[in-house]
Amino acid sequence: MRNVHLIDHPLVQHKLTLMRQKSVSTSSFRRLLNELAALMTYEVTRDMPTHEVEIETPLEKMKGRMIDGKKLVFASILRAGTGILDGMLDVVPGARVGHIGLYRDPKTLQAVEYYFKMPQDIQERDVIVVDPMLATGNSAIAAIDRIRQLNPRSIKFVCLLTCPEGISALSAAHPDVPIYTAAIDRELNDHGYILPGLGDAGDRIFGTK
Ligand code: URA
User: Fold this and answer.
1) Pocket test for ligand 1, best of 198, 208, 209 (most atoms within 8 A of CB)
2) Which numbered atom of ligand 1 lies nearest the CA of 195?
3) Domains of the chain with CATH codes
4) Mean pLDDT of 82-87
5) How many Cβ atoms from other residues are within 10 Å of residue 170's Cβ?
6) Contact yes or no for 97/127 (Cβ under 8 A)
7) Is the pTM of the predicted complex or chain greater than 0.85?
């Protein structure tokens, strides 16, 4: 699993464990997801290029380093990806945001696209695709297939949770796309849910069940 980055920082693991519990309220779930997303962004952007800038402290001039947040695109897979965006934008406020609307056909578990909007000049940008759950991998693969047609500079995929089936499917379809996750759970069940998982991420973020 060369391309999988497991983010096992104690703060990330602690917050994820809190979120998994079925007793956690919608507002707490959302707050924890925001906090986790911000923490995960530190790891995902670790290799981002920086450039030198000259600044002035109250005492003297110096050269510092800064990132170019405008070169980043966070591409959210609707609807659950939206739950991660705010936390990521807190850390990289200059990032552009793309949306891809996909739903899972409940019978086939295949991804069906209903919306697609990415920033212009994506060829000069690094894209980070976000979805809390990498389960069958169908949505992630469909989203990355589509984004790839626009020829971005690079693509990464970030999720909270995944399972061996999701990693195998995404790695087989897009071997060059690194996967960042806070946990690799045991398995996928027959309905496409991750076990032990945290349930339906969209329902838990938006309180729709
Ligand atoms: N999507 C979810 O929201 N939860 C899962 O366990 C799998 C896919």
Assistant:
1) 198
2) 6
3) 4-48+70-206 (3.40.50.2020)
4) 92
5) 25
6) no
7) yes
